[in-house]
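> forwarded from #structure-qc
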């Protein structure tokens, strides 16, 4: 399907059937169909925007997935580690989180270190619970991420944290199906990155952020975009009756919730 879409778009541009890719909407029946389609469009140099009402890439679990990948790529990335610690994967309680923030202020005053990870390292050296065990677990994930393919690291994380069970228990009724299969889907996604070759953590993180950004695009913003639009079929049919007749143009929204509110800075981790 993806090759046929790319070939058709290239033909239409070449023979003048369309003047611009923004005149085209591509409907996909399932969320998983959008990932290989985006890869094919990107490889062909065809601009595109994703509009997905199916929620996967705008869901909290996808934001937590980005936080996990961001931490594995750079443990001193404060925003990613803070979100990881509070999400169901780790699930620090509010009192524990406040204790970590206070310890961070103390560590910064005594050692000059100003990252969440350096604070965890300092607490672990004091053999304090739960910090020593938490630091050991996170360190093991980091070692695996440096030495093994990403999907194996993800398998370890899912097993250690009982991720599927935790997210399923916290899901709304409408999201239960997505939550039930998300982590298996994620391992398959990691295997498919970089045309089946093992991707770097930076590559995986960049791709995950792109998916979130494209899925968050909002046609109500009104800015013109020169790319074609890939849209989830069911959501489109519900909203427009299933007959695309006009070009739809979207603006990309690039900032995440954490970046917008300056969360790490407010907590004292500069």
């Amino acid at each position: 399907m993806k090759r046929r879409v790319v070939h058709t778009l290239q033909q239409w541009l070449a023979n003048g059937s369309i003047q611009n890719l923004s005149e085209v909407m591509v409907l996909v029946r399932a969320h998983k169909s959008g990932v290989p389609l985006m890869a094919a469009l990107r490889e062909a140099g065809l601009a595109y925007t994703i509009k997905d009402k199916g929620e996967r890439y705008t869901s909290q679990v996808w934001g937590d997935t980005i936080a996990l990948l961001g931490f594995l790529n750079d443990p001193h990335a404060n925003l990613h580690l803070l979100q990881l610690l509070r999400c169901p994967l780790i699930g620090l309680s509010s009192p524990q989180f406040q204790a970590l923030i206070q310890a961070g202020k103390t560590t910064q005053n005594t050692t000059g270190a100003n990252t969440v990870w350096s604070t965890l390292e300092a607490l672990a050296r004091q053999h304090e619970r739960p910090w020593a065990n938490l630091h050991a677990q996170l360190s093991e994930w980091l070692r695996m991420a440096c030495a093994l393919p990403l999907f194996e690291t993800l398998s370890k994380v899912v097993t250690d944290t009982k991720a599927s069970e935790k997210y399923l228990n916290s899901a709304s009724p409408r999201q239960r199906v997505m939550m039930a299969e998300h982590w298996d889907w994620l391992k398959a996604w990691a295997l498919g990155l970089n045309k089946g070759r093992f991707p770097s953590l930076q590559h995986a993180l960049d791709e995950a952020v792109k998916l979130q950004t494209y899925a968050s695009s909002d046609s109500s913003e009104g800015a013109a975009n020169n790319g074609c639009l890939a849209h989830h079929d069911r959501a489109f049919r519900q909203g427009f009756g299933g007959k695309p007749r006009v070009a739809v143009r979207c603006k990309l929204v690039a900032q995440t919730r954490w970046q917008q509110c300056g969360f790490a800075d407010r907590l004292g981790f500069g």
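QC bot note: Confidence is low (pLDDT under 50) at residues 218-225, 232-267. The beta strands are 25-28, 48-51, 228-232.
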